């Protein structure tokens, strides 16, 4: 499932475009809300990609932003795409907005993991062991759904159409941390070797001998999207929640870290025997 099939991502792109059109027309949000007779809160949700406007409102906005009628159709098609069916992951109880909507639309994922095995490279038994630990009071159905979602995400690594490119660096302690059982970890390590042989997967390990490095501050992921005008997005998650960095001035340091890791000679690549 690519960008054109990810309604949440389409809403995000549509919101950014509508904000750009409003600012290009020199209009404040409060003025647009007054003239369209909607609340500033609703306009904010539209521009933040949380909801999509209906077609009549979209036409009103385009007219307000002085877009010629003959140029409306590409924008209206974007509105239709943003209002289509829910993302596939919502059938499994996963929130409409969040990382999955972004990853589904991405073409490349670059990630550094300090404690966890990268989710896209985990075996089914490893995934289940992780979510059993995190389940708390949630039942078996929640665990099954989480496992299924992660397995579906992994399918893009093997796809011929809409294939995902993955470049990941993991700290050496990830390989030593037993998750599930000894047998689960043995199968996981064999799986890593198989996945590293894929042409679209780059897997490297940060050895202890590398000493202090900037990745010690925590795990992160950088997503790249199709289209020259869509900037990379840095995604950082911790025990308190998660946040995204989209502005180039703020995401560049994170991008530099991910690129720098891939070039460091001290990082050992995992290869097939």
TrEMBL record:
Pfam families, A to Z: DUF5753 (PF19054), HTH_31 (PF13560)
Lineage of the species this protein comes from: Bacteria, Bacillati, Actinomycetota, Actinomycetes, Pseudonocardiales
Protein name per its UniProtKB record: Helix-turn-helix transcriptional regulator
Recorded superkingdom: Bacteria
InterPro entries: Cro/C1-type_HTH, DUF5753, Lambda_DNA-bd_dom_sf
SMART domains associated with the record: HTH_XRE
HTH cro/C1-type domain: residues covered: 18-72
CDD domains: HTH_XRE (cd00093)
SUPFAM superfamilies linked to this entry: lambda repressor-like DNA-binding domains
């Amino acid at each position: 499932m690519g960008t054109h099939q990810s309604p949440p991502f389409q809403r995000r792109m549509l919101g950014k475009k509508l904000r750009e059109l409003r600012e290009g027309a020199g209009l404040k949000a409060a003025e647009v809300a007054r003239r369209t007779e909607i609340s500033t809160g609703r306009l904010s949700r539209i521009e933040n990609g949380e909801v999509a406007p209906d077609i009549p409102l979209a036409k009103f906005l385009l007219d307000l932003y002085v877009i010629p009628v003959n140029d409306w159709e590409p924008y209206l098609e974007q509105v239709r795409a943003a209002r289509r069916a829910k993302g596939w992951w919502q059938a499994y109880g996963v929130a409409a907005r969040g990382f999955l909507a972004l990853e589904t639309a991405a073409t490349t994922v670059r990630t550094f993991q300090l404690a966890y095995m990268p989710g896209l490279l985990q075996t089914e038994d490893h995934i289940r062991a992780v979510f059993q630990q995190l389940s708390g009071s949630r039942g078996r159905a929640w665990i099954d759904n989480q496992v299924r979602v992660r397995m579906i995400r992994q399918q893009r690594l093997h796809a011929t159409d809409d294939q995902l490119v993955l470049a990941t660096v993991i700290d050496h302690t990830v390989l030593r941390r037993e998750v599930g059982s000894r047998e689960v970890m043995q199968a996981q390590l064999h799986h890593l070797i198989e996945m590293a042989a894929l042409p679209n997967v780059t897997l490297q390990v940060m050895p202890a001998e590398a000493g202090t490095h900037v990745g010690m501050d925590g795990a992160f992921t950088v997503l790249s999207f199709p289209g020259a005008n869509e900037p990379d997005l840095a995604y950082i998650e911790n025990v308190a929640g998660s946040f995204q960095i989209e502005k180039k001035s703020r995401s560049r340091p994170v991008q530099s870290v991910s690129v720098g890791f891939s070039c460091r000679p001290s990082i050992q690549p995992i290869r097939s025997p």
